[in-house]
Design a protein that fits this description.
Blueprint: E1 13-14, E2 20-24, E3 27-29, H1 31-35, H2 42-47, H3 51-61, H4 63-69, E4 73-78, E5 81-90, E6 93-103, E7 115-120, H5 127-134, H6 139-144
Antiparallel strand pairs: 1-2, 2-3, 4-5, 5-6, 6-7
């Protein structure tokens, strides 16, 4: 996969001495994500702290399925991404969460762009505002900034 370690059905590296390493599109992931993709759940994705591993889990699980299982509703869309409202059940209590869907600005070696889902404050009203917030900027400052 364009020089990046990747294997969908087993370890990308197997040293034959019990050391095995699992990679999804160049990102090292826990073995179960590759060997038991059926164990990936929307709740497990939501709990994963590492954004890269979470993205790999989402790719295997399916972005649409993830949003359907969390009752996602599209609330805004602009050139910077999509803003979703999801309903989560945590400890028996339904809660809403605002999620920003964005694509990485840098093309991958294979020509694709990575897609991310990021939690943002509930008062965000546009993807531009939410993206700016992730950088600690106002929407106006973000629009002026040059992406590198």
């Amino acid at each position: 996969m364009d020089g990046r370690l990747h294997r969908e059905d087993g370890p990308a590296i197997d040293l034959g001495i019990g050391e095995r390493y699992f990679y999804w599109r160049g990102i090292e992931v826990p073995d179960w994500i590759i060997e038991r993709p059926g164990d990936i759940t929307a709740a497990a994705i939501r709990k994963e702290a590492n954004a890269e591993v979470r993205r790999c889990m989402l790719e295997r699980f399916g972005f649409g399925r993830y949003l359907r299982e969390f009752g996602g509703s599209l609330i805004a869309q602009d050139r910077h991404g999509k803003l979703w409202l999801t309903r989560l059940d945590r400890e028996g209590h339904a809660q809403s969460e605002t999620v920003l869907e964005v694509q990485n600005g840098t093309r991958e070696p294979d020509g694709t762009y990575r897609q991310y889902f990021l939690s943002v404050p509930p008062d965000m009203r546009s993807p531009t505002e939410a993206v700016a917030w992730t950088y600690g900027l106002s929407p106006e400052q973000y629009d002026l900034a040059v992406r590198t």
